Amino acid sequence: MNLHIVALFKFNENYLMEAVELFQALVKETRKEEGCLQYNLIEDKDNKGNFFLVELWESVEHHNRHNGQDHLLDFRRDSSKMLESSTLVYKGFKIL
């Protein structure tokens, strides 16, 4: 069963360029992973510094493997000092 994820990020406005660079590397590498069906970065049109990742994984197992990848661990480490608040992550399965 496919796993859908939306992850919400709020970056300090002083770090927007750096944040986009980190996201570019993360998205590029993640899209190469087995089981990654969709991995898109969206910027909130009304709230500068707010981004969300829309993810679609072939299975929970594929996403679990993603969580251990170096590019994701690097992103988490490097972005942590730039975030204004904790990242919110929603995971679920399609109903309709």
UniProtKB/TrEMBL annotation:
InterPro entries in alphabetical order: ABM_dom (IPR007138), AI-2_Isomerase_LsrG (IPR050744), Dimeric_a/b-barrel (IPR011008)
Q: Check the record and name the Pfam families matching this protein.
A: ABM
GO terms, molecular function: monooxygenase activity
Q: Which residues form the ABM domain?
A: 3-93
* Alphabetized UniProt keyword annotations: Monooxygenase, Oxidoreductase
Q: Does the keyword RNA-binding apply?
A: no
Q: Which PANTHER family match?
A: ABM DOMAIN-CONTAINING PROTEIN, QUINOL MONOOXYGENASE YGIN-RELATED
User: What is the recorded name of this protein?
Assistant: Antibiotic biosynthesis monooxygenase
Naturally occurring in which organism (per UniProt) = Chryseobacterium tagetis
Phylogenetic lineage: Bacteria, Pseudomonadati, Bacteroidota, Flavobacteriia, Flavobacteriales
